[in-house]
Amino acid sequence: MSSLRNSLPRRAHKERAQPHSRRKFGLLEKHKDYVVRARAFHQKEQAIQKLKEKAAFRNPDEFYFKMINTKTSGGVHRQESVANKYTKEELMLMKTQDIGYILQKLQTEKKKIDRLCGMLHSLDNPSSSKRVFYAEDREEAREIRAKVSEQEKVPDVEDLPKNIKRKMGSSYRELEARQGRVRELEKIYMDMAMQKELQKKGRKRKLREDEIVSPTSRPVYKWRQERKR
C-alpha cells in the first residue's frame, strides 16, 4: 500500500505570497526568517543586559593604565602614539637583526643562482678539457680523430625532447627571477646599512651634486674626521 500511495499524484503546496494590499512591505516573512531575526534581537538584548550588569557592579576604585594611555575619539578608544617606545640602543639592535636577515637571504639567493648557472651551461660551448690519444700510424690517428669528433658532437637545442626544453625554459625563467630578487635585496641591504650608519654618533653632512666624484642616484654623506684616542 505504501508503494501505491507514493505513486499517486500529490498536490504541490505553494508558499503563501504577500497580499496585494501589503506589497509595499516587501516579501512575506516566513517562519525561518522570523527565527533568524528573533535570535539576532535576543543576542543584542543579552549583550546590552550584560553590559548594564557590568556597569552596575563596577568597582569605583578600579584602575588600569589604559585609562590614562588611551582616549575616546568619536566613541572609539584610541591608544596614544608609541613612537618613542624604544631607546636608541634597542633600535640599533633591531636594525642590526634586520640587516642580518636580509644578508642571509641575499647569500642564499646567490648560492641558488650559482647552482642554476652550473646546471644551465651553454650547449654551444663544448668542454675545454682535452684528452691526448697516441697512435702508431696515420691511419689509426684518422680513426681516433673520427671517433672523438663523433663523441664530442654537441646536440642542437631543436633536437632535444619537448620535456627537456620545457624544463630548460622554466629554469632560465627561475634564474632571471632570482637575479632580479638579488638586485632588490642588494638595494634594500645598502639602504638599511646607510640608515644604520646615519643613526650612529658623529657629525655628518650630505654632499652636493658638484662635490660627488662619481655621480649616483643615492645620497652621499661625509663624516667629519674625529681624533681617536
TrEMBL record:
Residues 8-24 have a biased composition (Basic residues). This is U3 small nucleolar RNA-associated protein 11. Residues 1-24 are annotated as: Disordered. It comes from Penstemon davidsonii. It is found in: Nucleus, Nucleolus. Component of the ribosomal small subunit (SSU) processome. It comes from the Eukaryota. Keywords: Nucleus, rRNA processing. Involved in nucleolar processing of pre-18S ribosomal RNA. The keyword rRNA-binding does not apply. Belongs to the UTP11 family.
